[in-house]
Amino acid sequence: MDRDWMRQRLVHFDELAANYWDIRRSSTGNLSGARKLLFEAEPTVTKILRSLDPQMSQVELLTQDAWGGLQIAIDEVQRGLGILRDMDEWAVRLAPDAPSLPADQFHPWVWDAARTFWESRHYRASVHAAATSINAHLQNKLSRRDLSDAKLVAEALSDKPPESGKPRLRVPGDKSDTAVQTRQRGALQLGQGAYSAFRNPAAHETGDLTEQEALEQLATFSVLARLIDICQVEAKP
Known about the structure:
Number of strands: 4
Number of helices: 8
Helix content: 55-70%
Structural class: mainly alpha
Strand order of the largest sheet: 1-2
Shape: rod-shaped
Order of helices and strands: HHEEHHHHEHHE
């Protein structure tokens, strides 16, 4: 929702209405031209008001009076400007108490790659960039270029012993500890799931994600990045 654009359109309509009434009261100036500008602006302003408040769906901004002049529902335009002015404060003051998730605190592999796309509101592209970044860091960590994405994760976090040219990542801790073993399996499953469920659709599907969907997916990749980052490389002797 482009609130600045919406505000500009409402203010412009208010100014057109004031100009129309000035001309009508003074009987000087181009009254028909002022009417024309109002009717040109009215469809967009109506859509803006309806998007701000569904209760305005029946509002008619321009109607004819008994003498053939215009009746202008300028109070509704002012109401729309009031909504726009206070929307940000409503979001803060009236929101339920809940934890927030600042994206700039995600793992650097994720946020540094996603930030440019996020700021331009290309949310699916931001997820794809984050996944690509993790893949590149994982390839560098293992010195491998022959695999990528879910296949690379599968081999990297496999519980099988390392092979020639196929080093593994190991979660820190005693490998005989069941908690460490469980975490190793979880890291593998998380990585495969993230690439299959999020990266592949981000690369191949059309249409964008919502901001909330993208934030949740970036959070998942951030968790994966932290796991990969702390893992130790185990190579075949």
